[in-house]
Every structure is written in structure tokens, then in C-alpha cells.
Amino acid sequence: ACGPVAEPEADAAWQIAVAATAHSEVWVITRPRFRDAIRAELAARPDVAARLHVHYLDLAAPIVRLKRRGWDLYWYYALWQRALRRRARGLHAEHRFDIAHHVTFANDWLPCGLAGLDDVAFVWGPVGGASPVPLRHLHRWLGLRGT
User: Fold this and answer.
1) What whole-number distance in Å separates Cα of residue 64 and Cα of residue 97?
2) Max Cα distance, the chain (Å)
3) 53-67 pLDDT, tens per residue?
4) Which H/E stretch holds residue 135?
5) pLDDT by residue (tens digit) across 117-127?
6) 22-to-26, 52, 107 alpha-carbon distances in Å
């Protein structure tokens, strides 16, 4: 999610994208959920609009309808990430990105389409995890001083 809205995750992504425009041109690929809010914000901020390029991506309508029925959304996420990889590769071929940053809905166990870009530094996170931490292995991973 990404957009200038009162939803913490979407707004955090939006703030990161806007901040990055101070140093670079920025391309954002997001679902069209906040399209109207994004358009209004860019119209009000031409300085940001000149450097922030938003591309909207969603899956086919029948797939989106299945997602809206309340089914587990992780299957949808994986399909969306595949579509993201295709879109990002096309944009990268045209604009030659230096960095790809996956900002929201990043989990330590889910795929990320941006990781499939060649010759691009990849930043993943902030990353959350719904995975249990195997405490019995922490001493091996962190050493005695880390546990």
C-alpha cells in the first residue's frame, strides 16, 4: 500500500517515496486503491510530482474478487509479486534504476518481485515477521553476548 492517506502503512510508504524525491527520481508501483488521493497530492505538490512517477498495478478482476471474499490473501500477494516483477523489469529496462526498495507488506517469509531485478541494489524493509523465533537456537546465531 502506498498513498497520502490516514492508513499508517500506506502513509509510511508515501512519506518514504516523497522523501526520496529530494535526491532522485522515484518510481512507485502500487495497487490503485489510493489513486485519487495520490493524484490530488501530486497536483498540490508540483515539485514532488516532477520527480515521483506512480504506476498502478492490479491483477485481473476475477482474482481481485476472490481476494475480496476474505480468503487468505497470501496467495494473492504471491501472484501480485509476480506481476510486480514483470512490471518492474519493464520499467528498469527503460529507466535503469539504481535501487529497488520494497517498503510495505514485507515479511521475512514472503516473496518479493523487486528482488528479481538485475544489476539493482535491493532494499527490503522495514521487514516484519509473523514467524516464531526458535529461542533454543539464538545462542548459536547471536553468541553468548547476544542472547
Assistant:
1) 29
2) 55
3) 999 999 998 988 888
4) none
5) 999 999 988 77
6) 10, 10, 28
Report the distance separating Cα 34 and Cα 6, nearest Å. Answer: 11
Q: What CA–CA distance (Å, rounded) separates 115 from 102?
A: 9
pLDDT tens profile 83-103: 999 999 999 999 999 999 999
Sign of CA dihedral 83, 11, 117, 73: negative
According to DSSP, the residues that pair with 100 across neighbouring strands are: 122
Please, which residues bridge with residue 122 across strands?
A: 100
For residue 66, the tally of other CB atoms under 10 A from its CB is 14
Give the E-state strand segments of 57-126 in sequence order: 99-102, 121-124
Residue 33 makes CB contacts below 8 A (sequence gap 6+) with 1, 3, 10
Rounded Cα distance between 22 and 51, Å, is 8
| pLDDT at residue 31 tops 50 | yes
